[in-house]
Amino acid sequence: MATLLNDREIAALTRGNLPLIAPFVPRQEGKPSYGLGSFGYDMRLGSRFLVPDEASGMTLDPTGTPAAAFREITAAEELELPPRTFVLGESVERFALPPDILGLAFGKSSYARCGLVVNVTPLEPGWRGKLTIALINASPLPIRLHVGQGIAQVVFLRGERPRRAYGDKQAGGAYQDQGGVTLPR
After folding, report:
1. 169: pLDDT confidence band, cut at 50, 70 and 90?
2. 23: number of Cβ within 10 Å
3. In angstroms, rounded to a whole number, what is the distance separating the alpha carbons of residues 132 and 44?
4. pTM score > 0.85 for this model?
5. Which helix (H) or strand (E) holds 8?
6. ∠ at Cα 13 (20, 36), nearest 5°?
């Protein structure tokens, strides 16, 4: 049976050679908030984004998308996401999941109330790296994204160690140790 990790358990996993979360903020700060909560961690939005380039005429493909289909931008403090568009962003934090921990991310309510859909795939046991975050503006109005502030909450579940962790997958751990926003491979 899986158990949900509380703030003390999450904080304990951030100590040692391969911390669960780095950099780690031991309390909630900012707006939208980031840092350690009661039963999760509010991760921050990084400054690098990949924006689909409509002029490229390419098709996005989950089996491999050419870099030319996107243009990279860096935002110092904020980025306005036009209506009904999406970008790929990255987390500030780097995660290193032990082989018996799974992480699930959920968008922050302040952004959800503006029409932002935050999509992050599960942080599988044994996975390491910065998260790539799909940010979709479902609103008819632009949404302002705040770099360095909270974008999603990650909750962590502990279960028995699976037979195969992320790096042991038959298909390979294509996104192991990704350093930031990463296209499909």
Report:
1. low
2. 10
3. 12
4. yes
5. helix 7-12
6. 75
Beta bridge partners of 4: 157
- In the block, residue with structure tokens 């030319």: 68
129: tokens are 């790296």
Place of tokens 């996005």: 60
Do the Cβ atoms of 62 and 141 come closer than 8 Å?
A: no
Q: What is the pLDDT of residue 171?
A: 55
CB 184 within 8 A of CB 136: no
**26-67: pLDDT as tens digits:** 999 999 999 999 999 999 999 999 999 988 888 888 988 889
Q: What does the block give as tokens for 102? A: 């799974």
Nearest alpha carbon to residue 88 among 129, 42, 136:
136
Quick one: tokens of 109? 């309510």
Residue-wise DSSP of 108-174: -HHHHTTTEEEE---B-TT-EEEEEEEEEE-SSS-EEEETTSEEEEEEEEE-SPPSS-GGG-TT--T
Closest by CA position to 9, among listed 94, 100, 106: 100
Contact 58, 66 (CB under 8 A): yes
* Single-letter code of the amino acid located at 167: G
